[in-house]
## 1
Amino acid sequence: MLKPNELLQRSVDLACANVAEGGGPFGAVIADGEGRIVAEGRNGVTRCNDPTAHAEITAIRAACQTRGDFRLHGLLLYSSCEPCPMCMAAAWWSRLDGVIFASTRQQAAAGGFDDDRLWRAFETGATSREIPIRHVNLPTAGAEFEHWLATADRQSY
Amino acid sequence: MLKPNELLQRSVDLACANVAEGGGPFGAVIADGEGRIVAEGRNGVTRCNDPTAHAEITAIRAACQTRGDFRLHGLLLYSSCEPCPMCMAAAWWSRLDGVIFASTRQQAAAGGFDDDRLWRAFETGATSREIPIRHVNLPTAGAEFEHWLATADRQSY
């Protein structure tokens, strides 16, 4: 059982180890309130050809497999770096109790990563300037939600 | 080779099929500029115990595996529903050319999904109200970026 700062240090150690092995400089740990590690993650974007394989996403997916649940109530995410909007939203969808991070989005920017720019786009409602998005009013749109709401045994989340 | 509206209809069809098979009401298609489908995705959150397995993320990961690349330049994402912040950021990290969607975040909310609430948290800079986040100034933080910048053959992204 590790203390909070030891868990956070572990995430930084994972980030450093990942760089040594050719990966990106990000690591993450998911632990329960008593400091027991449930899962760990390293950035695997280039190694796995997966732009979503940030350390936090990788740790969340691993923790869910370990738990056999798509919800992580009662667990905390320790990340070597402030999560990007993708990872912050993933932490939210996974119902984690909270996030603790060491390096900041500004430090990530100095390392050549775009997190700070992406955060600013979200915080100013300007994501469509970064990636063009278009709504097409398809006549059949919404049928999927009608099917969903008509399904008595649907598993909500 | 399908026209844009046919690709979008395909994403709605995938969403409906997913509901019929017990999954969430979301589907996505990734195609090139000529309308050739590169990958498809369905929401697998409950089926796969993976809170990150939104249809868009699943399609992005599949397209990257097909391409053998973590970048999807030249491709478009067609989604049955307006992407949540996680998926929008994933679209950005994957360097897709753009996103086209059918149902809106408000329609998703009527279906019982939290996308609209999550978007508002991001757009008002209030994500920390949704999930507690804390910065701890670890003395060793930043070492991972120093290692990274000192690695001559690092693969940036």
## 2
Amino acid sequence: MFTLPIRVYYEDTDAGGVVYYANYLKFYERARTEWLRQLDVDQVAVAQELDTVFAVRHIEVDYLRAARLDDQLTVTVTVKEMRRATIVFEQSILRGEEAVSKATVKICCMSPSKLSACEIPPFIRERLPST
Amino acid sequence: MFTLPIRVYYEDTDAGGVVYYANYLKFYERARTEWLRQLDVDQVAVAQELDTVFAVRHIEVDYLRAARLDDQLTVTVTVKEMRRATIVFEQSILRGEEAVSKATVKICCMSPSKLSACEIPPFIRERLPST
Amino acid sequence: MFTLPIRVYYEDTDAGGVVYYANYLKFYERARTEWLRQLDVDQVAVAQELDTVFAVRHIEVDYLRAARLDDQLTVTVTVKEMRRATIVFEQSILRGEEAVSKATVKICCMSPSKLSACEIPPFIRERLPST
Amino acid sequence: MFTLPIRVYYEDTDAGGVVYYANYLKFYERARTEWLRQLDVDQVAVAQELDTVFAVRHIEVDYLRAARLDDQLTVTVTVKEMRRATIVFEQSILRGEEAVSKATVKICCMSPSKLSACEIPPFIRERLPST
């Protein structure tokens, strides 16, 4: 399972003294991006050379505990399912042993020029751990 | 059904040329806040005087189309379900007639001092349309 | 002087209970965008048809008072100076009569394809109030 | 000179394909926070136990080059001046050798309960490199 450490800064929090609910989605995406990077996939090159971007189609997020300023969190990434054009990730945000949030994220490969779904580039598919 | 008009600014977009997926959650919350306001509920006063805040517990979001810079959107709010401590909202983001996104949002009343769930303040419950 | 009303939402605040310092820049930009719009300038069309975007080159911001959740603010826009490729704006954020923040913002017209400064499109210049 | 490495994610960019101008302020603050942390200053404890927070009073930012998605940046922090209640920082954001942005940031120690300026806590002052 891939993990990314994340520190909570003022920018992430709100007047309730906790991390603002939309900002967990930033943490989840940073982890998916770093997961791609450690597979040696360069998102910018894939977009420019293969006319393919990864678009989020559906998310489901549980907010279990409140993360706070200065918290040191760990974001996890697991591939739950892969199809021709879509990948479903299971992710979580942990503070030590306890789960702060859990998420299921469905992304779809898109061709920006055609504005339509397209196949996951084969070279990426080959690098993904089979599930 | 309550609706709030929202304009898309540069701050909302990302390098993909579309609204960044986390930022839809900001639009959804602005609409819930204005929905409370038109019921004459002052969130800041409720927090200070009744030790009660509204915390998001669960969200489910469909991303159906891409919203873009300068788009004029409409965010909708409907109460789907109400219990002792929780409210479930059905929300959508429309561009003209077409749905850009749909969401189900479950919020829970919390006592910040006790760090535990608490009842929806009765005066708020009375103002909510029965469902 | 052009003015834009802005409401402070949770997304704008931080754990200090006030508007996060970077988010004032979002308010300032929303006001500049609406100022352009009321001059009937369509930023998206200008970018696509004239290969011209407005890039911020320099800002100077005074933080005078703290804006808070639910505050109703007014953002002002005045053109202080205009040259061939640059415009300097004087802006402020007011809460009622009191100034919450003041800013000087220098923007430059840029050609994204040439990555270099370019002239302010003449049709925009003609619509700007002379200073 | 203290430095912090920062990676640019989608959340940081806008539809112009570059880092949104307000988001550089987040990078600058992350670096000041980590600078404090390596001096072994715990901002949360200082706020709770000493009733003292660091509030930004004035910023001046030069935007010299555009940072882009996936860029690996370095944010620098130098103390330029220290007085009884204020510190002035010189900061920069570098991409390799080239400066992407430069900033001067004046912060002021504030007592949240008294809503007024207060002295820099002596234990922090002692740990600051003299200038």
## 3
Amino acid sequence: MSQQRLRQQLNEIIFGTETPAGRGFDIALIYAILISVFIVIIDSVEHISSEFKGLLFFCEWLFTILFSIEYAVRLYCSQHPFRYARSFYGIVDLLSILPSYIAFFLPQAQFFIIIRLFRVLRIFRVLKLFRYLGEANMLMRSILLARRKIFVFLMSVVVLVSIFGSLMYVIEGPEHGFTSIPTSIYWAIVTITTVGYGDITPQTVLGQSLASIIMVTGYAIIAVPTGIITAELAVEIGRDKGEHACRNCKKTGHDSDAVHCKYCGAKMEIPV
Amino acid sequence: MSQQRLRQQLNEIIFGTETPAGRGFDIALIYAILISVFIVIIDSVEHISSEFKGLLFFCEWLFTILFSIEYAVRLYCSQHPFRYARSFYGIVDLLSILPSYIAFFLPQAQFFIIIRLFRVLRIFRVLKLFRYLGEANMLMRSILLARRKIFVFLMSVVVLVSIFGSLMYVIEGPEHGFTSIPTSIYWAIVTITTVGYGDITPQTVLGQSLASIIMVTGYAIIAVPTGIITAELAVEIGRDKGEHACRNCKKTGHDSDAVHCKYCGAKMEIPV
Amino acid sequence: MSQQRLRQQLNEIIFGTETPAGRGFDIALIYAILISVFIVIIDSVEHISSEFKGLLFFCEWLFTILFSIEYAVRLYCSQHPFRYARSFYGIVDLLSILPSYIAFFLPQAQFFIIIRLFRVLRIFRVLKLFRYLGEANMLMRSILLARRKIFVFLMSVVVLVSIFGSLMYVIEGPEHGFTSIPTSIYWAIVTITTVGYGDITPQTVLGQSLASIIMVTGYAIIAVPTGIITAELAVEIGRDKGEHACRNCKKTGHDSDAVHCKYCGAKMEIPV
Amino acid sequence: MSQQRLRQQLNEIIFGTETPAGRGFDIALIYAILISVFIVIIDSVEHISSEFKGLLFFCEWLFTILFSIEYAVRLYCSQHPFRYARSFYGIVDLLSILPSYIAFFLPQAQFFIIIRLFRVLRIFRVLKLFRYLGEANMLMRSILLARRKIFVFLMSVVVLVSIFGSLMYVIEGPEHGFTSIPTSIYWAIVTITTVGYGDITPQTVLGQSLASIIMVTGYAIIAVPTGIITAELAVEIGRDKGEHACRNCKKTGHDSDAVHCKYCGAKMEIPV
């Protein structure tokens, strides 16, 4: 019976955000995650790494052990341990402690600790940032509605880039940096996305002419994904305003951050 | 009579996608195309090319002969051979086998085998990706509706780029990399599309000032094609929702992937 | 009287586009302009210039003399010579022949012959491309309606770029390529417009951090001019469709390239 | 009593823009600010700085002393000196004279004089550019309405860039310029914003493949902030036109720069 109560209390603290202890735990956890990610990042800077070798090593293992214990406790006090372990947060929690252990055998693996950043997504739950989730949902919904258009668009880009890349390989050749078709395709992607590193550039007049065509093409088609997302978003925002009705006068068209109805002044329900 | 039946059966397998054999043939064909393109791409990588010379040579000719036979059979079993030969797919089918033969005389021609990528467009027919075709059609229709605006826009860019290029040639001159007006125009295109390789850059104060004006201009006018496409797309999406009516309650405004009417719950017709 | 008739006939040929002779003259003129611009462009390529020195020199002067005669005849046969001379086309016509004469004293001036490109705008008048002018007008109207928003936006960019440039000059200093505040402002413009030549790049950690902020800022505010133009264009396109009514059934909402009314099938008036 | 009048008169001249003296003072002030900023900018150019050392030094101190006196007088003649000192303009006025004094101890501080540029914002008050303020307000309102979407978007970019940066550090390593995770994150920002300096570029096939994914991702998500701002702006512009009603016939839908009602021709109120 007492163990049952302990599990329930731990569950409230670790999974819950209603009690002061639950909130405090989650906020402490987020700070711990951010600090541990920061340590991994600065550990990669040579002169800091060599100077504070001991301290950084100690901190990394401290956090890894803390997070390992936390994972074990989560499994212990969860009502459905297997369901938690297979959930998004459960997998991220596991993936964010594994790299430290794998680093015993594969030193580079250590830097995958950065996966811990995903755990910070909990901040949305803790700080009751439901409004932000609503906004994120709207963005995701727009992208989902546009997924087929984006797929068709990406397919066209892949075919275009392959053709242009092969053409440039034939025109410019290895002596001007276009050493193979994969490299030429990489150059075409760098160009069509307007990144333009300049590590590989066309030298011949024909190559420069073709490159100009690719750039203007890229310039024109950058409009397509923007147009797709914007058009979907405009519909979503319009629908949002349409559904956000006042309970008193039933009129719609309020902004999503309206507190009072702009027609009758009645208090608005906050949309979730 | 028997030959008539053979042609009809071949036609069903090669051109049709209704029978299991027809689907199987088309899917096998798509894999063969992707593999043959992949071989051409890796054949251009020096160290792979020299190591697997024999194997790659064998594969390329295997696919070329297979595709040549396929083309001949298509001509044989088609009901209107000439109509097929002059259709989009007919021309692409021919163009995708020619480079291998031309490569006897002109080795570089081999890389044009990448034209085979266009044959993959058949995937839309096989996998009944009509919805995707619908999306592609909407994108194409938006671009077509906006074609005159885009033409006016491109003409303005060409004039602008010629004037700016000539000005920079006069200001910077050959000693700073602007070796001729064509090169300067190439630089202006690289700059106005915000690609910015950095292989040619202005060195004088006057040149840098003019370059700044070109960049801000480019930054401002990148908005124009985006605006054109977006505005047309918004109209297209709006029309799409307007035309997609429920057969039961006649109400419109359904999403293009809706399965049931959101007002009365009746099964929706899938839009083609 | 005879001179009066000569002037009138010349006027019809040179200024008019109604008679076959008038159209023929304008089309020949456009070809002459394009060829003369092409000659100036290839004249700037060293190895072509030195090989065909005599031919190019002859062609340039041939066109200059032809265009000078044309300008004189225009002045002679125009009903209001002064009004023509002060009009947009009159000024462009003059400016496009001056550089050749100025080149006697200032050889570089020759390349300003490219101003002739503006004369090609006549093509709109000749080919009755009124629809294109309509589209161009819509684009211009959108930009005009948005002019105050664009001005506020450009002012903000200028202030932002000056502040960021000065900060980077203090942080990075002349030893990393940021030799003066004007150069640093140039770098900030190159960065905020996402051109990114890479001729000047931050080397210190602080400089790279500030540069990252500038880039993300640029990434976010690139949305603003696009948003402005798109929103105005959407309103313009909406109004366009609203005004394009069928004369038979009075219904609106037709596409700008509709030939028949989509409701009653009556022939539509073509909008100008 | 006389001192009271002096303070009131000074207040009218310095703070007011109604009297000719008040307008004259503000316009003179704006010119003085622009000149003093220009002096700081050209003072950073080595060869100008060394040649006109004395003159530039004199001018800088002249303006600093003038602005210091102006600040003192503002404090003296303001009705609520503390309220002024804590207002936006009060703080900017102070910050724009401090750098010159701090430069005694910290020579680099001098360049922060560029903060004076913010003082030029007064131009909006002087020239009665209320319309421009209205446009600026609309832009700000759109950005404010979209602030949560933009926050969610920026958070996603930060997480994405950290993950991609760490991956590239592991793949490419210090020998190809990816010397640490912070540097790799800087590279990821340079790439995802399509700036693409080219000072650090991937060399391995795996690195180039990952870089290609980052670029296409950046290309796709550049659409998101644009879409957000555009959709909000479109709503704002629509509302603007909806609220701008004619006082005579009550009809709405007028452009923001309309002087007469387009339906009944009555004079419109100018919107503030």
## 4
Amino acid sequence: MVVQSMPDASPTKWHLAHTTWFFDRFVLQPLGLPAQRPAYDYLFNSYYDAVGKRHPRSARGLLTRPSTDEVFSYRSEVDARLADLEGSKPSLRAGLAAGLELGLHHEEQHQELIVTDIKHLFGENPLLPAYDTEVAARFSRSRARPATLTWHADAGGIKEMGHAAEPEFAFDNECPRHKVYLAPFAMASRLVTCGEYLAFMREGGYVRPELWLSEGFAWAQANGKHAPRYWLQEPSAEACQASEPRVFTLQGAQAFDPDSPVLHVSYYEADAYARWASARLPTEAEWESAANHVDQAFGVAWQWTQSAYAPFPGFRPLGGAFGEYNGKFMVSQIVLRGSSCATPEGHSRVTYRNFFPPSAEWQFTGIRLARDA
Amino acid sequence: MVVQSMPDASPTKWHLAHTTWFFDRFVLQPLGLPAQRPAYDYLFNSYYDAVGKRHPRSARGLLTRPSTDEVFSYRSEVDARLADLEGSKPSLRAGLAAGLELGLHHEEQHQELIVTDIKHLFGENPLLPAYDTEVAARFSRSRARPATLTWHADAGGIKEMGHAAEPEFAFDNECPRHKVYLAPFAMASRLVTCGEYLAFMREGGYVRPELWLSEGFAWAQANGKHAPRYWLQEPSAEACQASEPRVFTLQGAQAFDPDSPVLHVSYYEADAYARWASARLPTEAEWESAANHVDQAFGVAWQWTQSAYAPFPGFRPLGGAFGEYNGKFMVSQIVLRGSSCATPEGHSRVTYRNFFPPSAEWQFTGIRLARDA
Amino acid sequence: MVVQSMPDASPTKWHLAHTTWFFDRFVLQPLGLPAQRPAYDYLFNSYYDAVGKRHPRSARGLLTRPSTDEVFSYRSEVDARLADLEGSKPSLRAGLAAGLELGLHHEEQHQELIVTDIKHLFGENPLLPAYDTEVAARFSRSRARPATLTWHADAGGIKEMGHAAEPEFAFDNECPRHKVYLAPFAMASRLVTCGEYLAFMREGGYVRPELWLSEGFAWAQANGKHAPRYWLQEPSAEACQASEPRVFTLQGAQAFDPDSPVLHVSYYEADAYARWASARLPTEAEWESAANHVDQAFGVAWQWTQSAYAPFPGFRPLGGAFGEYNGKFMVSQIVLRGSSCATPEGHSRVTYRNFFPPSAEWQFTGIRLARDA
Amino acid sequence: MVVQSMPDASPTKWHLAHTTWFFDRFVLQPLGLPAQRPAYDYLFNSYYDAVGKRHPRSARGLLTRPSTDEVFSYRSEVDARLADLEGSKPSLRAGLAAGLELGLHHEEQHQELIVTDIKHLFGENPLLPAYDTEVAARFSRSRARPATLTWHADAGGIKEMGHAAEPEFAFDNECPRHKVYLAPFAMASRLVTCGEYLAFMREGGYVRPELWLSEGFAWAQANGKHAPRYWLQEPSAEACQASEPRVFTLQGAQAFDPDSPVLHVSYYEADAYARWASARLPTEAEWESAANHVDQAFGVAWQWTQSAYAPFPGFRPLGGAFGEYNGKFMVSQIVLRGSSCATPEGHSRVTYRNFFPPSAEWQFTGIRLARDA
């Protein structure tokens, strides 16, 4: 629970401390409850400049103190203090609701990150250890055999997208609901499978620059990429031709399943695959328009769109530190839509905007194709 | 003409050889004229994978051979061979037109780069040398005193943007013409001035993270930024408060001119300035819609939009190597619109899409504000 | 026990597994006892090319598996198997002696590294945690008040240095015993104290290039050095003038003790201090010649010599994998002599040659001066 | 004359300006002659902290101004001012002698660097251009067929080494003359040839870690080394087996000459070759003792010793800025002895100590073997 496998990933203990601190700092302290562990503002602040300086992200794994026991104690204390508020005056409770709700959604995001970060850590270990089998089964690749890929036609025109007003929760970056104009297009009925992706590889997918964005091909060359992350292969391209790779999962190394959706691809790989398949990635507006008409929209893999992460017209960030939650990351990132097998129940919705840099592979990311009508 | 001051810039000699090679390789050789200097396919290919391997971009400054004289000879030869085609059969000449036209527009782009790259090189020299005065005056900052900034209101709705069919030339990335839906907005009547930007600096612009994108603030910190590139200042923030900086130009160091447009800002800086000014950067669709109604749209500074560089709906790259001209760069870059003081006459148009990474500063880039209606 | 704070340091668990593996691989397996955990040849091999490929040094902290419990089990198994050999035939036991003896000395070296690596890890934690107080007291800085520094004169001439033949143990790099010629010199009677080092700092020690080796000054500038590692200071030079720093120790942050020996200085700092003090560092031959005539030769701090780590005349590395133990590191390192407060009892001797790169700070390194007669 | 091919190399124009500045700053100005180009103290100071801040070494190639013509003018001016001093008072002339003599030896060192730096620059050019043929012939590899390698025996004992008192010139690092004790040894009668080195390569020299220092093997792997710099080979190890490589020289690419001495090897390669040949590199004391008894001591290739660059016992650097000439580099460098084909006439002597980091390849460096008696 203590080790950090790369700057983008965090130790489980840190996730636990940080989500707890989020309630402490943004729910309890604004009510006048004193900060009992002031050093935690430094240690467990992720990126809130409004709170102040913080421990460097890449050094989270050096925090062998506070111990895991101490962090669980902190959790219990904050839980207890939040519970104490239940009996408090209704006016106070009303003021709590927004912070609590955001805190819970925030924690759900970190629940998913805990899964992806453990997978990354285990994937760096030559022993390829398995995570607890029962839990890991939830994130298993095996799904029912996919139906034949068909294309859902969307006539386009003026559409509304984004989150409308309350009562349902949404992050600020999903707002406001607004109009867009879409040209007619078609959306794939399901995600790309491992078998389909292997065909791309066997046709030289990773060595044909004409299939790639220039930055993507440079990324693939610089990182010696010739398969998705967690595919276990002999290093030679020849070996790739001859046999199917094994795949590292949270249950350890597993046999290749051609029917399961390909996972852990970067934007660059998704884009190159789409070009090879004479298709393209959808825009996020197209995705949102068609999501209710296709399979595997949620609960399997985050789906790379071709849309850079940008503010919706009329976007207004939340006030105070919460304004840093989403808005300040709106450059150099790509929007992903849907949700993955690691997303907590109830955390998926059609307007949800996930975002990662185009080189990110350690999330449960997959490919859904689109094409012009 | 030989030195390369950074990987993104090229020596003048290289620009000359490369644009000449473009005609040789893509106009003459397809007609069956033999390649007379086959090594140039390696040395002076910029990024065309379809042509083959090439000299690393960052090592262009190591090519002290071929000499400048040899490159001029090459230029004369190619010019002569192109002139010889004039008297050839009409059918042949027709086939030439597309390549020639693209080659000329390509060369105009490099003419601008020669100016920006020389400015960068001279800017790295502690002597701050002046370029040829007569030529440099064309790129002078001094313009007439700007009118008061006003806001042009645009009612939005469904708009058409992008390049329509021929006969006028456009790059493939400007096509096809297509519909977009715009919410009502307002566009600034002119560019931001140096004086306005200095006010931003004096209110702590570079040290207030709440004004910046997260990536932008990290960039500013990592690079010790506290003013636009080419502003010459004492390194202390206090000095910035006390006096006006001098500015390095192609005529050498010059006195600060508060009325001239601020130049050489990165996207990060443009975005932070806009937030400080309670405004935002325009989208490229907004810019195109309003360009004919505002001042300084062309010929002063490229204007950062908030739009990531992406394909227009229905975009189809050109065939063959020309397909690599624009399409393969459509990630991690920001669109700039308009044109600059270094843009050749006749190379500006309302649909033109320039693009650079958000950290680029050495182009003549400026800031035009927009805001929601 | 799992976290790695920098590439040069290793997790405690790794040290335990590696020293155990050393007995397994180099004592038990050569006797024909089967390798029971073949993966450990990859995971816990430090640098023995003769054994084969190995886990990258900088990634030792990613090995959350095998667990600490498993490593302790491994330890118990190997201990038991070694104990079983006691009753075996005398001829067999004789063959064991050399490997066992080397393995024990090897383990003592790692015992010291465990202390230095934990100190480094804790020193990276903003909480500055204390190690177990009772144990840490052994490594306390507090010693009796040092006597006045005097100079031990050595008349030089032909001397013998290095380890002679058996029966006492020595590493191969201490052999053979050989003659050197020394000019007359004088050696300081004790180590440099924190108070003396603070005087160097207050006279601008870290900002006067004339006191430093060129590489050392560049190192100090690049790393923002203005005090020894583990001295806790305000970042401004002014603060350094005004008050004494606190010092991080294995017992946590402690008050400054001017009488205790300065610890955790790099070679560059030791060399600069010596130049400031109108002295120099001793050669290793001088150190060995004078060691029995001065105080604090052992058990306080490793003492930087001015000698690069090189083979003694006639040096022959051990055969097989043991030949990699010392010989292959004989470049770009500096010899340190003596031993430190973290060195296990019985591991010190006058011919012992420790070696680290000149930038190393995390060992218990100190300064002993010498000067020409 | 303007381009810099790597941080360690300098443009020819810079060498010319720097050596001229050396006379200006250290001979003329101390006489009270005014500095006529004060900016040159910043631009053309190499590493003299006593003079002040200076242009970064790695950015010397960005100085397209002052132009080459201006630098030649500067040269003429300084030459004229020095000539003017000839007729001056004898007392003044006496004061000049030391600075002038050092300046001339300094310039001879840069004359050699001009040759090595041009070779490096040309070697980075895919065209592999030839330098002026007549001049380059002086640095040709072709020498008379080497005699059979024999071993010169040296009985060792107490020896004197280093430079004695005047009248002959020597750098401060060659002083004082002092005694050392040498064990008996033998020195190879000539340098290692290309043919001998090729045999090392064909026996797997670059892929057998047991032949290398650990740092050397890591260097070879990280840099993809499988031959000396300037040997032109197909990248595969197989190709190396099948045919002889061509070699880049100042006359362009040349056929492989097995009899010529191997050049441009790093210390790591020299050390690995020696181990393969069951020999070792000499110490600098051994080299100096035997130099007058072997062939190719001077004028062919600098010869790596196994000695780190360190002060001789009793070493005292020169006063003032000249004290920075040699002493501050005495760490992390290896001594080379002899001289090379690029060393100016009259610049060689038996006590001369050249020094470079162990990874340096662009100097004319070769291998002379030694072994224990």
